[in-house]
Amino acid sequence: MSNCSTLSRFAALVAVVVVGGSTAVGLAVADEPMFVRWLVVDDPGDETIRDYWERAEREELSPEGLVDLGTMLFYRGYPKDARRMYKRALDLDSDLYEAWFRIGLVEHSENRLYNARRAYKRCLKKLTGHGWCNFYLGLLEEQTGNSSAALYHYRRAFKFAPELADPKFNPEVLASDLALGSQLVDLDQRRFKGMLPIPYLEPAEVNRIRRLYEPTPTPEWEEPSPPAAKKAAPQQGEVQRAQPQPTPVQPVRPPRPPAPRRVPQRTPAATTDSASDSPTEEVPWGMRPIGNVSGEAQFAP
User: Fold this and answer.
1) pLDDT for 240-288, tens place per residue?
2) What kind and span of H or E run contains 102?
């Protein structure tokens, strides 16, 4: 009889342990997010998500890391878990405007436009010049029929991020009927400002003062001459033009026969023509000496 009671007590204890263990496993599985069960082993993207999630559970992930984890989950197909990670990031850093913008994108993609508008505006409250947020809020306003608000946010988006107007950079701009209109409005305003008849009342005085603050430009053709000792040697062609003809010892071209020497003035006795009316003979221009008369002077041809 005692053996039977002992066995019954042992069986009851085992049942309690088994039930308790299964309950604990069930609770652990219930607390585990759904996406963890669907992560593929050995897939680089899924393994990255698992690594980020395990560090997030140990509270070792920064707010920016939580935003990246939420983005990975959104692209993986888990928008609800992505939104939860974005909100966890905001709990750690309430000024992280990028988390609000991505919450707005998640809500916008699920057609929850009211929540998306609130998230976009929370982002712009932190950073008014967020180009992407202005663009998507303009797109949302256009979808809901608020044309004036859509134009306002489109113009701000293109002001702070002009590349958003390029379909190659932002293909979503092609889905908007008002985005082009906002660019035309800006172009028209710039033209209007440029054509306003507001001349200066004292233009001469304004220009005089302005010239005081303008640097004096140096003409490109005017270059400071180097010191005499550091002048660069001219090229070969320039030497031939700037200096007298070299002596026959160093000819530039085939030497000519030496010209006959002539004295600068001729006396009547040296005149060979007795019938000449003039006692002296004028030296032709081409035979006048060039340079000095030291005997080394050359004659012009």
Assistant:
1) 555 555 555 555 566 666 666 665 555 555 444 444 444 444 444 444 4
2) helix 97-109
Tell me the β-bridge partners of 289. Answer: 299
The answer to whether residue 141 is domain-embedded is: yes
Please check whether residue 99 lies inside any domain of the structure.
no
Q: Is the residue at 106 inside a domain?
A: no
The answer to whether residues 80 and 49 touch, using CB atoms and an 8 Å cutoff, is no
The half-sphere exposure of 165 on its side-chain side, counting CA atoms within 13 A, is 18
Question: Within a domain: residue 152?
Answer: yes
Q: How many domains does the chain have?
A: 1
Number of helical (H) and strand (E) elements in the chain, helices listed first: 12, 0
Q: What distances in angstroms separate CA 179 from CA 119, 132, 163, 183, one per listed residue?
A: 22, 13, 13, 7
Total length of the chain: 301
Residue 113 burial (CB < 10 Å; 0-12/13-18/19+)?
middle
Looking at the whole model, is its pTM more than 0.70?
no
CB within 8 Å of 225: residues ≥ 6 apart:
none
Exposed, middle or buried by CB within 10 Å (0-12, 13-18, 19+), for 67? Answer: buried
**Which H helix or E strand runs over 186?**
helix 179-194
Between the alpha carbon of residue 171 and those of residues 46, 107, 134, 168, the distances in Å are 28, 20, 16, 6
* Residues spanned by the domain of 143: 131-214
Is residue 299 a contact partner of residue 290, using CB atoms and an 8 Å limit? yes
DSSP for residue 289: B
pLDDT digits (tens, 9 = 90+) for 174-204: 888 888 767 666 666 666 666 667 777 888 8
Three-state secondary structure of 136-162 = HHHHHHHHCCCHHHHHHHHHHHHHHCH
DSSP of 261-287? P--SS--GGG---TT-SSSS-PPPGGG
